From TrEMBL:
Residues 1-36 are annotated as: Disordered. One of its GO terms (biological process) is heart contraction. It comes from Seriola dumerili. This is TATA box binding protein (TBP)-associated factor, RNA polymerase I, A. Transmembrane segments: none annotated. GO terms for cellular component: RNA polymerase I transcription regulator complex. PANTHER family: TATA BOX-BINDING PROTEIN ASSOCIATED FACTOR RNA POLYMERASE I SUBUNIT A, TATA BOX-BINDING PROTEIN-ASSOCIATED FACTOR RNA POLYMERASE I SUBUNIT A. It comes from the Eukaryota. Pfam families: TAF1_subA.
Length: 428
């Protein structure tokens, strides 16, 4: 908000002064700054009118009052500033209208005596200040109502915006309308959740209540299903739709939605899509092979994801020795990231994998190949004397597990990470 005000106010520029600071600096041989300069919407000029001067000074006072949290004073000045909209040359510019809305809502947010009606008045005025603003202001208005618990009112705002039209519909307007429809359906889902919670607390179910829930489900489903036709990241919308489908036992449709969301190449890569698919399959007792297939793609996208522990576990349970080697690679890649450095589960899993690999004759070769590219940074990442002291003080069990792996992972290196005689223990 303060950045908007700074851009609005801007520094005074005298276009007729040949001796301004920038030219002076250039003449003196000073290097010009490469920092990006603000592009002020309004700045003081020598020929500014009295109207422009008064609105500029008014904005300066608003800024000063907001910086010092004098919200009543800011509100009084703000009551005068919208006269800028009456300026035929600049008042119709979109940035002025947005600035007025942002300032007004920010002041009301902090003003001790603000009421919901005040917010509604501002949003309604800005909706009708220009047709290009109507849809997005309506969406923001609904967000505000939703935050204050007025779900039905928020839905009404979106329903009105959904049916709003102005002239020939442009591509941008069409996209905004789809966004409005999606959020309106999300509100239908929220109301559906409230109805479901209420019914779960009732001993006597009424057929009318069940039918009302069904109606909200149908209303929400229409647009939530349409979302998949528009490539993008739609996580909350997809989760809402799947939850309702799952509630009504439409598992085939739920699985189709999640598969399309995860595997449709027209969508941007989204790790969450694969997480949602995995969680759904796991809830419905899908085979381990299918679960591993989903986690394999997630591993490519986010090798440090917490579900990689589950992926390594599934690989370790497999009867294929190649899967055991994959499990080793998965856990080593997790431990390449500092966020897993002190995770006991990850180190225990690594130890379990190596113990399983020991049943193979070439296990040392397998470990050597996986560690070949890590010997340059793993000692500094995991096995310094500092790590030894820290782990021994904070987590002695972790210290013991890590120390038992040093000779296996880095047999050719002399490491300072020791825990008594554990580090020198032989693996046979």
């Amino acid at each position: 908000m303060m950045d908007d005000l700074d851009r609005e106010l801007g520094p005074r520029v005298d276009l007729e002064d040949d001796n301004n600071s920038s030219d002076t600096n250039s003449a003196k041989g000073h290097k010009k700054s490469k920092l990006p300069l603000a592009n002020p919407m309004c700045e003081e000029t020598l020929d500014e009118s009295g109207f422009h001067q008064s609105t500029r000074i008014c904005l300066e006072q608003i800024r000063e009052a907001m910086l010092h949290h004098r919200w009543q004073e800011a509100a009084e000045y703000m009551a005068c500033y919208p006269q800028m909209l009456e300026d035929p040359n600049q008042g119709s510019r979109p940035q002025y209208k947005e600035l007025i809305m942002r300032l007004s809502t920010e002041i009301l947010h902090h003003h001790p005596n603000s009421k919901l009606e005040d917010y509604n008045n501002i949003y309604e005025r800005m909706k009708h200040s220009g047709f290009k603003h109507y849809l997005m202001v309506s969406l923001e208005h609904s967000f505000h109502l939703l935050l204050h618990g007025h779900i039905e009112d928020a839905k009404h705002q979106l329903s009105v915006a959904e049916s709003w039209r102005y002239g020939k519909e442009s591509a941008v307007q069409c996209q905004k309308t789809k966004l409005i429809q999606a959020y309106r359906s999300l509100l239908d889902y929220i109301i559906w959740c409230d109805k479901k919670f209420t019914l779960s607390k009732t001993d006597h179910l009424d057929s009318g209540d069940n039918q009302e829930m069904r109606n909200y489900f149908r209303q929400a489903s229409v647009n939530l299903k349409e979302i998949l036709k528009n490539p993008g990241v739609w996580d909350p919308f997809i989760l809402s739709y799947v939850e309702m489908l799952e509630f009504y036992d439409d598992h085939r449709e739920a699985l189709n939605v999640l598969n399309d969301y995860a595997y449709d190449n027209s969508f941007p890569p989204n790790p969450n899509a694969h997480v949602y698919l995995y969680q759904y399959l796991k809830r419905h007792d899908t085979s381990q092979r299918k679960l591993m297939k989903v986690l394999k793609i997630l591993h490519v996208l986010v090798p440090s994801h917490e579900l990689m522990l589950e992926y390594s576990f599934l690989l370790l349970q497999s009867e294929k020795t190649s899967d055991h080697q994959k499990a080793l690679g998965v856990v080593l890649e997790m431990l390449d990231f500092a966020c897993w450095r002190s995770n006991m589960d990850a180190w225990k899993r690594l130890k379990a994998i190596i113990q399983k690999l020991q049943l193979q004759e070439d296990w040392k070769t397998v470990v050597h190949e996986k560690m070949a590219g890590r010997k340059d940074f793993w000692p500094a990442l995991h096995f310094t004397s500092f790590h030894a002291i820290k782990d021994s003080e904070e987590n002695p069990e972790l210290m013991e597990v890590k120390a038992s792996l040093t000779k296996v992972l880095c047999p050719d290196l002399i490491l300072k990470y020791t825990a008594g005689g554990v580090a020198s223990a032989e693996w046979t």
